[in-house]
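Thread title: Can someone regenerate the structure for this chain?

I was given the following input by a collaborator and told the matching structure tokens would be attached. They weren't. Posting the sequence so someone can regenerate them.
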Amino acid sequence: MSDIKTIDALDARGKRVLVRVDFNVPVKDGAVTDDTRIRAALPTIQKLADDGARVILMSHLGRPSGTGFEEAFTLRPAALRLAELLGKPVAFAADTVGEDAQAKAAALRDGDVLLLENLRFDKREKKNDPGFCEELAALGEAYVNDAFGTAHRAHASTAGVAALLPAYAGYLMEREVGTLSGMLEQPKRPFVAILGGSKVSDKIKVIDALIDKCDTLIIGGGMCFTFLLAQGLSVGTSLKEDEWVERAGEMLAKARERGVELLLPTDVVCADRFAEDAATKEVPVDAIPADMMGLDIGAGTAARYADAIGKAATVFWNGPMGVFEMDAFAAGTKAVAEAVADNEAADTIIGGGDSVAAVNKFGLADKMTFISTGGGASMELVQGEALPGVEALR
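Best answer:
Regenerated them for you:
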């Protein structure tokens, strides 16, 4: 981040500052049910407001059609929650670049905060449309990107506007990129990476990149079964990707060549169907019944994984060990989460996505060194991809 200016370099007093935040938060019955992402943006918003900026926030929420207002995706609940957290009023524009947004932006006084309506109500946002970029830029005099969770998207609000206004990184963006880059470039060793989730195809580039960086790679979740197939085992009706078996085998060989310990499950919890009340049993991985599916790692595997995690000086975790949303298959993910939390001497980094949901579910978030707000963005950074939202600030 050394070649990117942060908001500490911005003389914000009296300026309209357009800030891209990530308020893509869950909403139920008109109220925000998890305000983690809003809280993550508070240091940047507070700093700008305290410096006398006229703060104009913009974000997307969900996946609206892009043809105009949709009640289910309005950002108004986020504005209400932000006002509670800031302890002061937050103005809300009923549109993104239209008459209401323009009028409310013009009416701001030093230290005021305004949130625009959902960017994705306009289909031009995702297309990085030049006209839309210009309309957004016209609202502000400086641009700040604090939305790491969308930094892997080349949209109008994350990339296009940055070319039209003096551009800066917010504190969250600075910390996210700095922490993840530092982990990859100079990790304290041993460096243990934990990858879960359902599909090898979603994580193959990340696996490839981490084998080059880590000392131990732990694999769990549905994607472990494709690796077990590569070892010649039968996996019953478990989730598998036959077209990725050969590639999984190549990853196993690469890990051996690099001297990286790649840990796979030795036992799994199987079920006769994908349901909370399914009949279950724990079996060794070479004895998975033909009519059952693996939905969690077994107790022996969880203990092995916890032992490896306990010896680490750096831990990076992305993806659950099983279907942790169902209590019957949550034990493996919980054991890994507890092992990461218990290693207080290590730098423990949670790479966004379901891993964040897991540490929150088990009440362990405050035991982690760093929790990334961006699942997709953190994965692309780890696998060495340039992030459009970061590159636009350079």
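The radius of gyration is 23 Å.
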